Amino acid sequence: MDKSPDAFRTISEVAEQLDLPQHVLRFWETRFTQIKPMKRGGGRRYYRPQDVELIKGIRHMLYDHGYTIKGVQKLLRENGPQFLASIGSGDMAAIEAMAQRKLQEVEDAAQVAASRPKLDDEMLVGQAKVKPARRFFGLGRPDEDGPVQEGEGRLSRDNRALLQEALFDLLECKRLLDQVR
């Protein structure tokens, strides 16, 4: 006899339905506070239909999309449990909304990168003006379009751009480390 779609499920039923070991479900309860099965005498767990949909969404993001537990926790913080439950139920509108948000994030990041100062621009770091990187590294005036001239210490435009990106990535890492300390 099958249960109604609105009926509560035991941990063994949920584990079987989602092809997960029971201990994984118990572990996920400790990592995702949004999973709150009812507990009866003796600690028996009963999962509501919305709990099962949320677990399906979490499973989908972890196993099918390669997210980490921290990544799924961040998704839950930013979008709420209803979002992951929608993914678990296969709601394409929710998935499309997530894709649109990610696309917007990428576009915003590209705009930020485009607005960063160039290597030849003098930068203000704290209260001090910083010399352009090419002068800092002892490089002469580079040709704007030419390749690296052997023995002249000049960088091509592409190499300068790569160096600039690496520099900003290192500065961002330093900023993050300083926040943690």
TrEMBL record:
PROSITE patterns: HTH_MERR_2 (PS50937)
Protein name as it appears in the record: DNA-binding transcriptional regulator, MerR family
GO molecular function annotations of the record: DNA binding; DNA-binding transcription factor activity
One Pfam family hit: MerR_1
Domain (HTH merR-type): residue spans on this chain: 10-78
Claim: Protein biosynthesis is one of the keywords in the record: no
Keyword Lyase found: no
Alphabetical UniProt keywords: DNA-binding
Gene3D superfamilies documented for this protein: 1.10.1660.10
